[in-house]
């Protein structure tokens, strides 16, 4: 073992302290300044006692020496012998070097600190915030909705961690989202796939964590890895819940296993397919879902109402003047959406309602009037087989066909209009739908006219996955214009439901007068935001989006009340109750292309008078 000398060890120790950065440099420069001033003051007291006494003693000389190190001009007024003046000159020149070095170190350290802040590498100190991991176009919807949800809060914050430049992220959020009100948005640069970078966003004190799917191929792989990292990190006793969405249904099981019991996993693929299929059967569904999921209009609340304890669910439906009941939350936490009408509300049960705000929920002092003579009792009638045309083919098309087969009446026909024939879909044996293929370029007017569109009741236009999202929407717009113009020329109406990638294109697309638009990415973003704010809504939405549970339906208004009759909305609620359904609103056909609500009215007051025509719809929660 090599032994180092004292001088060598001292040099190694000194070098080690210098490696500690600006703080060590400032300390050494301060110590050197103190030593210089102390030595000069001591020498002045020994070799120039007369001048030292004349200047007020050694303490005053010490103070004036400090001033000389900071300001060389202070020496201009000195007097005394050569020794005293020489000592003052030494402290002044030494001060020039030491203080200049100190200023340089401080400036460099300050610049480094500002640079690190701009890089977004400093830890966040926050509590009760929501963490967003990852970056995609969904982040703008998420931030906007979280800001809207916390508009009434005194202080809230959203922390975004993504492998991008901090300033660039902040600029994009500012440009796309605008003013976030009282919600503070903090961005940090780092990869959600690295454990050390996750420590930047104060996960332990967060209220919820949202994992966004990145752009590109196989986004679920990154989501699952982030979920693994989150599930395996040490958490405090009270930990935030995690919300994530996977794009492919086949990855849901793996994501749930990786995430553990504290995470809520959304099957984005299944919801997108279900919205397309159900909207084709009942146009306006995606508009209803958007209204329920965003924070601008009506939302779903879970509220205790002890005054209703002991009453059956059918009576609860008519007990509110403002607020539309859709189910019950039992004392043990189980959810029952649209339970049987004779279900008793126990003492500790809660009511699940649709309302504009929890403060606006109002129990009626007296039940609203019901116009019993206007209620229509329609026996269940079997729907006739229909013919549907699906324009285009993408990664979700197989699922769409399978779900269409489940909902369609036996003998129904589905023709796929696409450049290439989907061989597997054509070869599969189906119970209710016969699938055919017609060669067609979706944007070609000539090819669409050759489809003989007048023979179809419904048309579904799928987005082109092979193109960029904006370009795919542009192609969809052209296809919609052709389809609607062909309908006008034929004089034979058909419904059109289409996929869109960007909700910003929806208003532009209204000129096509399509019956409904399904913007699946926005719906998933809104759903994740709702779950981040209230994890107890997970079971409610799971039931609403599950084919085996109660779902949202838009049914002909003429099946509930006499067309054209002026009745209270309580009459519509009562008519739906007799059929085992929960009525939550209506949609006017004449306003179906008018933004922002597209004819949808949710949660009207029970005493409000409405006049529904034959082409209008009643929005209900029902099991069929």
From TrEMBL:
UniProt xrefs under PROSITE patterns: RCK_N
Membrane topology: Multi-pass membrane protein
Domain of life assignment: Bacteria
Listed GO CC annotations: endomembrane system
Protein's cellular compartments: Endomembrane system
Keyword list, A-Z: Ion transport, Lipoprotein, Membrane, Transmembrane, Transmembrane helix, Transport
Domain RCK N-terminal per the UniProt entry, residue ranges: 127-273
GO biological process, alphabetically ordered: potassium ion transport
Transmembrane segments: 21-48, 83-110
Primary residence: membrane
Keyword Endoplasmic reticulum assigned: no
Stretches assigned to coiled coil: none
Similarity comment: family membership: Belongs to the castor/pollux (TC 1.A.1.23) family.
Protein name: Lipoprotein
Species: Catellatospora coxensis
């Amino acid at each position: 073992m090599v032994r180092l000398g004292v001088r060598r060890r001292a040099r190694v120790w000194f070098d080690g302290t210098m490696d500690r950065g600006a703080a060590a440099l400032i300390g050494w420069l301060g110590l050197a300044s103190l030593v210089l001033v102390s030595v000069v003051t001591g020498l002045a007291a020994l070799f120039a006692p007369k001048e030292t006494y004349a200047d007020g003693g050694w303490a005053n000389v010490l103070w004036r020496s400090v001033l000389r190190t900071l300001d060389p001009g202070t020496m201009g007024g000195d007097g005394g012998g050569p020794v005293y003046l020489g000592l003052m000159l030494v402290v002044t020149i030494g001060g020039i070097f030491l203080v200049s070095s100190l200023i340089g170190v401080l400036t460099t350290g300050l610049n480094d600190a500002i640079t690190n802040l701009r890089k977004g590498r400093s830890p966040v100190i926050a509590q009760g915030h929501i963490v967003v991991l990852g970056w995609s176009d969904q982040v703008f919807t998420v931030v906007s909705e979280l800001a809207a949800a916390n508009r009434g809060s005194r202080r809230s914050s959203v922390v975004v961690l993504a492998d991008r430049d901090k300033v660039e992220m902040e600029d994009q959020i500012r440009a796309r989202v605008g003013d976030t009100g009282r919600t503070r948005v903090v961005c940090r640069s780092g990869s959600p796939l690295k454990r050390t970078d996750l420590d930047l966003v104060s996960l332990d004190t967060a209220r919820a964590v949202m994992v966004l799917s990145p752009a590109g191929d196989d986004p679920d792989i990154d989501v699952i890895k982030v979920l693994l990292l989150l599930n395996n990190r040490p958490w405090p006793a009270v930990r935030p819940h995690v919300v994530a969405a996977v794009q492919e249904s086949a990855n849901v099981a793996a994501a749930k296993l990786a995430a553990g019991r504290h995470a809520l996993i959304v099957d984005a693929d299944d919801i997108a397919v279900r919205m397309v299929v159900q909207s084709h059967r009942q146009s306006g569904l995606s508009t209803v879902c958007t209204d329920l999921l965003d924070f601008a209009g009506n939302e779903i609340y879970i509220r205790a109402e002890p005054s209703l304890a002991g009453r059956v669910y059918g009576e609860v439906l008519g007990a509110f003047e403002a607020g539309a009941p859709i189910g019950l939350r039992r004392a043990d936490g189980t959810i029952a959406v649209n339970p049987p009408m004779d279900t008793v509300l126990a003492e500790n049960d809660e009511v699940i309602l649709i309302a504009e705000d929890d403060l606006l929920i109002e129990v009626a002092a007296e039940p609203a009037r019901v116009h019993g003579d206007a209620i229509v009792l329609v026996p269940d009638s079997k729907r006739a087989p229909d013919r549907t045309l699906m324009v285009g083919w993408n990664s979700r098309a197989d699922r769409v066909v399978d779900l269409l087969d489940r909902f369609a009446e036996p003998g129904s026909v589905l023709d796929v209009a696409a450049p290439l024939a989907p061989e597997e879909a054509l070869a599969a044996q189906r119970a209710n739908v016969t699938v055919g293929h017609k060669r067609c370029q979706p944007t070609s007017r000539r090819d669409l006219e050759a489809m003989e569109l007048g023979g179809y009741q419904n048309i579904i236009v799928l987005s082109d996955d092979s193109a960029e999202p904006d370009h795919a929407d542009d192609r969809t717009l052209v296809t919609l214009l052709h389809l609607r113009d062909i309908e006008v020329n034929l004089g034979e109406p058909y419904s059109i439901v289409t996929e869109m990638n960007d909700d910003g294109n929806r208003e532009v697309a209204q000129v096509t007068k399509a019956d409904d638009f399904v913007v699946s990415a926005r719906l998933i973003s809104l759903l994740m935001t709702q779950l981040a704010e209230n994890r107890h809504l997970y079971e409610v939405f799971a039931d609403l989006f599950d084919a085996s549970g109660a779902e949202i339906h838009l049914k002909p208004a003429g099946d509930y009340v006499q067309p054209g009759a002026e009745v209270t909305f309580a009459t519509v609620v009562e008519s739906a109750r007799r059929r085992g359904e929960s009525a939550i609103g209506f949609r006017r056909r004449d306003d179906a292309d008018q933004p922002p609500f597209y004819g949808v009215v949710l949660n009207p007051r029970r005493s409000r008078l409405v006049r529904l025509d034959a082409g209008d719809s009643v929005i209900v929660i029902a099991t069929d």
